[in-house]
Amino acid sequence: MALKRIVIVAALAALAACAPKRTERESSFADLQFARRAEVPAILTLMPDSPSARATYDGMVDELGADFDLVPRIVTRKTSVEELAQIIGDVKPKAIVVMNNPTLRLYRQYQIARPAAKRTPVIAVLTSFLRESSEGVQNLTGVIYEVPLVTSLVNLRTILKQPLKRVGVLHRPIFGKFIEEQRKLAQTEGFELVGIEVSGKKRSEIREGLRDLRNEKGVDAIWVLNDNVLLDREMLRKGWLPALRRNRTPVVVNVRSLLSRDVDFGTFAVLPDHNALGTQAGQLIGNIAATNWQVDGAGFEYPLSVEKVLDVTFARRYLEIEEQQLATIDQLVE
Amino acid sequence: MTGVIHPQPPPPQRPWLPIAVVMALLIVAGNIVGYILYAKPDPTQPTPAASVTAPPERDTPDEPKTTPTTSLAEEQREAGVRALREGKYAKAIASFEAAIKLDPKVADAAVLLDVAKNLQEAEAQDEIADETETVAEVTPQPRTEPTRRRRVRRTPRRRRRVQREVSVEPETGMLAVTTVPAALTVEVDDFDPQTSPVELDLEPGPHDVRILKDGEVLETQRVVINADQRTKIERDFSGRLARAAAPPPPPPAAPPPPTDGVSKDEELDLVALLDRDQPKETPAARTTTTETPTRDGSALTPTPAAASPRLVVFWPGRSSSTLEQSMRSEMGGVDVRVVTRTGDLRRALSSPTDAVMASPYVLRSNGLAPSMSAKANGSGRYFAVSLEQTPVKAQIANQTIGVVDELGRNAMPAFVQKLLGSSRQPRLRRVTKVEDLLPLLQFSIAKTVLVKERDFSVLEKRTQRKLHTLPLSASATPLAVAFADGGRRAVVERAVRGMGNQSKQSLGVDSWR
Hints:
heterodimer; A: 334 residues; alpha/beta; 7-stranded mixed β-sheet; 6-stranded parallel β-sheet; elongated; B: 513 residues
């Protein structure tokens, strides 16, 4: 038991240590003075002060910086609706970009509190499960944060010589609609998604579900859904990590830190390319501007560009891979 | 070994020797038993690739190393991480607290402190469980039906473990759960669900009890069971359930955000913590304004004489690392920087640079005059590609077209218009990598994509769907090089002409003229 505990602790510590150090340069972002340009339309970006948000913002600047006045404003959990209204009143934006779920929630409160206010077009990015999270927000479009399964699998198949057809996933019932959508998209590229519903309340479900997927369903890969409930600390400790010890089936994850050479977990991580995400959001804004700032029918887009990370030691030991294709992987973990 | 098991009679002056030998034997035996119980690998399985038992030391560049210049707070944080990995939670907590005291803003010490505290608490609970686990389920209690007293089923892992333990009389405590209304689901730890009212024999120690109705958790409680004692939980949910029955059930809460370390209810959100980027991925802060640098065509600023001459290569749509590596090795003495995005090119050109290699139209759009051009080793044709049907040239410009961005938002439409020979500027979706053209088609964002002939194989390799293609007569112009006035043109030009086959093949260049 002691050894097992040390093992799990080492794994958790390795995962926890992946948290970055906040540098002085990062924390100074909120204090930077951005010169305003009155001659071009203003785009207000409401964002957290996080690396992902900053990379996304940089992508937007590359795309739109020449033609629009991009105004970033840091939003925290302490920002009130009144403060947000003050910011919007000061900037007078033609469109508003909101980054992450708390910011979107705050913006929804703002819309509810000011029903008579002009409905400025809103573009949401870095928001988990955007369709569900954006219920009630008007005049909204955006880029979904989750990497589509088909994109992850196409990238994995590109480096494999062995077949990749059946892919298993554990999911809670509330994700049924999302899983069904992913199943349909994956089918177009010849993948079959095998889902097992779990309640998310018992660790044993994870262990048994993974055993079932590998032994009974015979899946070629396992996809780990970004679900905080299924990936909480206790689920990791007593569900996933024990079940994935000595695993030889590739595990596709969409969280970077679930792939570590110290932990038997993710094999292949496919992550949003935040800079490209900003460029994509910038193009959405460009399209809205071209249609006189109307978002009707714009809908949501999937992210187009991803970054790939491979546990190459695992891949070389247990998988048949095309060595030449490793050049297409952004980061090889050895 | 025989000599050890049957040692010679100890000389009178060393009466401690037999005791020492016996103790040594006990230690060895203990290690062997420990190995068998905990570490013996499954003979049917090979050694795992990246076992969690691997040493926790990391030397990847994404983890900062402690240096003499590291601040005291940072050192404390590092010490805390090391202690955390070694399972020394008290030491880790002390280190993180010291780090926070020295500098409240230091990295994620607060989050790590929280992790350490949680792990310390979990360890304490595990220790209690360890002590009780060894004495459980050797002699099952007979079930007494009228009181619905049950013995909960153990997981297979735990049962196997128990079988290895020495037989000892079991000590259990009883948990009695009564609810109003009755017939609610009672879950204890990860054992099989029961129905209230119920009495359960449980091992002494903490247990998580959940009471549910139709899958909805009504209450979660941690109880501590003592041996030979009865612990009661009596709950009345009648009022709450009646209230809940009136309005429609609330929709499932939206999942917490991906980039915050704290969830909505202010509890540690581990996944959000894990989702944070690596430090090396952190982009540099913009220290100026949102204005995009523009070039007036007045040329590049050459590098100072003390530095290696610098060549910037713009290689849109493809991976830069392999090409950069081969060019650097084949063009000794020249600092080669390969960039793939238009924004990166603009930034690269704002630094001292002696030469730029790119398509002539890219050079001109950045105010640079091509003065050396390549002879391409392929046709350089473009293909129009669709998933539905073979594109019709006259209709392409009327649809949204996907293309790898080479010129940016304003110049690219005119370039594609010219490529198609169209009378109107098409609506584009620009991507940064050739492979990203495929999702444009898969997600129906674009009907058609344009791709250079030599890049078509990238799409072909990635999809099992049929790609319908239309070759276009227009060709991509081969690469060219522009030089900075006053820069070290001769050095760079010589290196470019002497470039090895690997780089030339990657660039699609046959020779230079």
